[in-house]
Amino acid sequence: MIQNPIPWPNGARCACAITFDMDADSLIHIARPGDSHDRLYPVSMGRYGPTVAMPRILETYRRLGLKQSFFVPGWCLDTYPETIEAILAGGHEIGHHGWIHEDPVITRGAAQAEAFERALDAHRRHCGGTPAGYRAPVYNVTQQVIDLLIEHGFRYDSSLMADDIPYEMRTADGALWEMPVHWGTDDWPPFAHYDEIGYMMPVRGPSAGLAGFWEEFEAQYEAGGFFMLVAHPFLTGRLARWRQVERWLETTLETRDVWFAPLREIADHLDGLKRDGFDPRVETLPYYDGPQS
Ligand SMILES: [Zn+2]
Known about the structure:
Blueprint: E1 14-21, H1 26-31, H2 40-64, E2 69-72, H3 74-79, H4 81-89, E3 93-96, H5 109-127, E4 133-134, H6 143-151, E5 156-157, E6 167-171, E7 174-178, H7 188-191, H8 206-223, E8 226-231, H9 233-236, H10 239-255, E9 258-260, H11 263-275, E10 282-284
Parallel strand pairs: 1-2, 1-8, 1-9, 2-3, 4-5, 5-7, 6-10
Antiparallel strand pairs: 6-7
Helix pairs in contact: 2-10, 8-10
């Protein structure tokens, strides 16, 4: 059961989004800046995303008529411009995902503001405008970032976990929609194995690794909720895994009453509902004004 369910367009039972964070090899450059350029294995693992997985993913979306959301660090916009062009040509959304995947909890203050603006500049150059949405690298949003999002007119964040379905976040200066994430619908735990950045996980087989996501979908579908997958091209875009996602998409589109949309369209829908009197659940920020003890 979901309190205060959101009515979806055309009476759809569940809103769905398969979102991808196209981090590519930014992860190794931020983790090992001194010598990452000469660590060819992690660079190649990251490059697989924009060069091999993305054409595969975009072709599936084209065939099935889907428009979806991608979160891309600014450094990746500059490094993989052809992939960015292909994403935009497919009518998809590209959201802000930091400059070079810096963690906002570590990069605070002036350095965070500078990285944020540098990424915004890359978005303006490659995507023709300011993005509507943001997802924090490793979900680590800080109040400073929320304030930057509001200052720059962003419409939504997608990094936090306070509900099952989209909710509103309000500060003294404005409001954002939150498109909530959680670790049960993120492909990092089942599929990432990345010693250089501290992950030594047993990689699961495609069906076993994806099975939990589909259970999450079933629960959201039954409740009339919101199902969002947070995936990475170099993980879920691998051949055997994407084959399974593709089959799930085909079956779901054929047999279920679902609304697949980019997150900015979900934000548009929520804005419309609010204008018509819908009362979303609200989280007021900042949560705390200082250390708690
Ligand atoms: Zn990321």
